[in-house]
Design a protein that fits this description.
There is one protein chain. The protein is built from eleven helices and twelve strands. A hairpin with a 2-residue loop joins strand 5 and strand 6 (54-57). The protein has helices at residues 99-102, 108-116, 125-137, 144-159, 182-194, 201-208, 212-223, 227-245, 250-256, 262-273, 277-283; strands spanning 4-5, 17-23, 31-32, 36-42, 48-51, 54-57, 61-66, 72-75, 85-92, 121-123, 163-165, 287-290. It has two domains: 4-165, Regulatory protein AraC (Jelly Rolls, Sandwich), CATH 2.60.120.280; 178-283, Homeodomain-like (Arc Repressor Mutant, subunit A). Residues 173-180 have low confidence and may be disordered. The protein is of the alpha+beta class. Helix 3 runs antiparallel to helix 4. The strands form three sheets. A seven-stranded antiparallel beta sheet has the order 11-10-7-4-9-2-12, with helices on one face. A three-stranded antiparallel beta sheet has the order 6-5-8, with no helix packed on it. It has a two-stranded parallel sheet with strand order 1-3.
Length: 291
């Protein structure tokens, strides 16, 4: 099975994002992304979770932490579709906490939790119930207090017992690590400043003072993608954020992200996200908070 690479709306200066929504069932394909994810579900007993090589039925309450690049998703299975299903999804960057901070004794338990999440962690029904109010409150407003509350939730999860590691094997997909290569950093900065217009590979290569061939090899080695594919992936990231945070039309978002053709935008979006822009926007109806 080929799993979908989800491009989340998180940008470089974001701490985390929260989706809090009511829905009737699950329709998003099995996917992965380089961010951590906490997923809380209430009211979908009988649905199935897929995390790494694990497949299992979920109870009335579901609370999991999934590490970077692990295949995951939920399917309806025996779940009776109803409008009372509540899902809260929290995504945060895999480098939110520096190595120095993670090695401090005071948050060692959080480091251990994040390390274990490479197999996917299922928390108990009691833990899910205890944290339900805190998770709901996290999407109430954008504030520094919410950032502190997010860290508090991570700490409470790190101390919770019992918890179950779900996947025997981490199905990690190698992604480009921007902070490990100076040229990649420079390319990423250039693309972020120019993604909303047409960019030729010659221009990008000149900005890095390297040849087009060298640039193509650099991207291919790090991501397995071509320059055009890599650039479009960045643009789709901005598009998903626009679909979530703004009331702009899909056409407006298409052109503001550097695509010059709406049908081409729809085709690339579908290939990258596994759904159309309209379906993506509908899927994320509800409270959205990015901090």
């Amino acid at each position: 099975m080929k799993f979908q690479r989800e491009i989340t709306p998180l940008q470089q200066n974001d701490s985390f994002l929260v989706f809090n929504r009511k829905r009737k069932g699950f329709d998003f394909p099995i996917h992965y992304h380089p961010e951590f994810e906490i997923n809380f579900i209430k009211g979908a007993s009988g649905a199935k979770r897929v995390i790494g090589d694990h497949i299992g039925l979920i109870d009335e309450y579901e609370l999991v932490l999934i590490g970077p690049n692990i295949n995951h998703g939920w399917v309806n299975h025996e779940n009776k579709l109803n409008s009372n299903l509540n899902e809260i999804t929290i995504q945060f960057p895999n480098d939110l906490f520096s190595k120095k901070i993670l090695h401090l004794n005071v948050i060692k338990s959080i480091k251990d939790l994040l390390d274990q999440s490479n197999q996917g962690i299922l928390f108990s029904q009691d833990t899910a119930k205890e944290l339900e109010e805190e998770l709901n409150n996290l999407s109430s407003e954008k504030s520094f207090d919410n950032f502190l509350n997010f860290q508090k939730i991570l700490y409470e999860l790190s101390k919770s017992k019992p918890r179950t590691l779900l996947s025997n094997i981490s199905h990690n997909t190698q992604d480009l690590k921007f902070n490990e290569n100076k040229k990649i950093n420079e390319l990423y900065t250039f693309l972020k400043s120019n993604y909303n217009r047409k960019i030729k590979i010659t221009e990008a290569a000149n900005s890095l003072n390297i040849s087009e061939i060298s640039l193509s090899r650099l991207i291919k080695k790090g991501t397995g993608k071509t320059f055009v594919e890599f650039t479009n992936e960045l643009r789709i990231g901005y598009a998903t954020r626009g679909l979530i945070e703004t009331d702009q039309t899909i056409s407006e978002i298409c052109y503001s992200c550097g695509f010059t053709n709406i049908s081409n935008f729809n085709r690339i979006f579908l290939a990258k996200q596994g759904c159309t822009p309209t379906e993506f926007r509908d899927n994320f109806n509800g409270k959205k908070t990015i901090i």
